[in-house]
Amino acid sequence: GQNIDQPTEMTATEGAIVQINCTYQTSGFNGLFWYQQHAGEAPTFLSYNVLDGLEEKGRFSSFLSRSKGYSYLLLKELQMKDSASYLCAVPRTGGFKTIFGAGTRLFVKA
Amino acid sequence: KAGVTQTPRYLIKTRGQQVTLSCSPISGHRSVSWYQQTPGQGLQFLFEYFSETQRNKGNFPGRFSGRQFSNSRSEMNVSTLELGDSALYLCASSRNRDRGGTGELFFGEGSRLTVL
Questions:
Q1: What are B96-111's pLDDT values in tens digits?
Q2: Residues 25 to 44 of A: which have CB under 8 A from any B CB?
Q3: Residues 6+ away with beta carbon under 8 Å from B71
Q4: Which portions of chain B are predicted below pLDDT 50?
C-alpha cells in the first residue's frame, strides 16, 4: 500500500502543545520523515525516525512505532511562526521514491 | 553551500504548449526528485534520477518526462500542456544512502506554472 494518513487541519493556541499524527502502510521500511512547509515556501526537513521511540530536537519531537505504522510530531511551546503545513513522508522502494501525506495545516492562534 | 536552484520561478503558458523546468542540486548530491504540488492533491511524486538514470516514476502520463545530466543537473518537460497541469513543481536533491545520507530531501523554491 501507499497510504499515508494525517489530519487535514488543526488549530492550537500560542504556548500550548500540539500532536500531529500520521499513519502509514508500507511493505518495506526505510524510515519516516517530517517536513514543515510555510505558505508559499518549499518544504524543509524537521525530523527523521528509523527506530522506534521518541526523537527530541528542541521544541519539536517525533515518535515512531514501526509495528503500528504510526508516527506523531509533537510541537511544544507553540509560536505564531509554527503556523504551517506539516508533511509526513515515507521513502519507498529502497529509498528512491519518497511519498508524502497530504499534510496537516496547523493554525496557531493568539 | 548553495541550495537547490530551480528556474524559472514563475511561468505562464497556454494549453497545448510545452514547458521545460530546470533544477540544479546541492553540490555533491546525485539524486534528484521532482514533485508536483497542488492545493487539492498535495505533493505528488513525478520521478527520481540518479547518475543520469531514472530509478523511479510516479503515476503521471507520458507527457511528463525528465532527464539528468552528468553534472547531476536535471530538467523536466511537460508537453501538450493542460489546464490541470497548473501547479508548483518542486525539485529536491538528496545525498545517496550509500554515502551516509538518510534520504532527507532538500527542496528548491519551485517553479510555479500557470496554464491558461
A1: 766 667 789 999 999 9
A2: 30-31, 33, 35, 41-44
A3: none
A4: none
Could you tell me which residues are beta bridge partners of residue A86?
A36, A104
Q: Is B9:B108 a contact under the CB 8 Å cutoff?
A: no
Give how far B93 is from chain A: nearest CA, Å.
11
Cα gap B74→A91, rounded to integer Å: 20
Instruction: Please report the pLDDT score of residue A32 as a whole number.
Output: 94
Mutation site, B104, B106, B109, B112, interface A, largest A CB count within 10 A? B104
Hey, of B43, B98, B99, which one would you mutate to test binding to chain A, going by the most A CBs within 10 A of its CB?
B43
Grid coordinates representing B38?
497542488
Q: How big is the A-B interface in CB pairs under 8 Å?
A: 56
Distance from CA of B106 to the nearest CA of A (A): 7
Contact at 8 Å (CB) between B51 and B32? no
Residue among B41, B42, B48 whose CB faces A96 most closely? B48
pLDDT recorded at residue A1:
42
- Confirm if A23 and A65 have CB atoms less than 8 A apart: no
- C-alpha cell of B23? 533544477
CA angle at residue A36 from B114 to B77, to 5 degrees? 30
Residue A30 has a pLDDT of 80
- pLDDT at site A77: 98
For chain A (length 110 residues), average pLDDT per consecutive 10?
86 98 87 95 94 95 96 98 97 80 96
